[in-house]
Amino acid sequence: MNQAKEIVKLAVAALEEKKGEDIKIIDIEGVTVIADYFVLASASNTNQTQALVDSVEEALFKAGYTCRQREGNASSTWVLMDYGDVIVHVFSKEDRLFYDLERIWMDGKIVNSVDEL
């Protein structure tokens, strides 16, 4: 398994463990050079947003992956974590609807399950 797919699988598992909502994987490899995959998840409140972010960072750190850059903080309604070929987005439900990355990146392919990677 290549590194990007492993990162996606670990990130999705970490998000599911902390009850992230509406988790989506978008394969953008053929669309842009900024990354191969986006992983998106929604949170009910800022505490859950932080729990999701912490869970992803811990799982990936334990697997030997470090976040290259992180945008957002404990009070943010959108946190972006850049792992190179994979970018993880954790949103409040409202911000997710407002920014609608699924529509913006509709040229990418929605991956319905980590088993499809």
What do these coordinates show?
With 117 residues, this protein is α+β, with helices and mostly antiparallel strands. The chain has a single domain, classed as Beta Polymerase, domain 2. It is 37% helix and 27% strand. It is built from four helices and six strands. Strands 3-4-5-2-1-6 form a six-stranded mixed β-sheet. Helix 1 crosses helix 2. It starts with a helix and ends in a 6-residue tail after the last strand. The mean pLDDT is 94.
Radius of gyration: 13 Å
| Sequence of strands across the biggest β-sheet | 3-4-5-2-1-6
Total helical segments? 4
Q: Which overall shape is indicated by the principal axes computed on the Cα atoms?
A: globular
The largest pleated sheet is described as:
6 strands, mixed
Give me the CATH superfamily.
Beta Polymerase, domain 2
Quick overview:
The protein has 117 residues and is of the alpha+beta class. Helices cover 37% and strands 27% of the residues.
Features:
6-stranded mixed beta sheet; alpha+beta; 6 strands; 4 helices; single chain
Secondary-structure blueprint of this entry?
Layout lengths: L2 H15 L3 E7 L9 E7 L2 H17 L6 E3 L6 E5 L3 E7 H7 L1 H4 L4 E3 L6
Parallel strand pairs: 2-5
Antiparallel strand pairs: 1-2, 1-6, 3-4, 4-5
Helix pairs in contact: 1-2
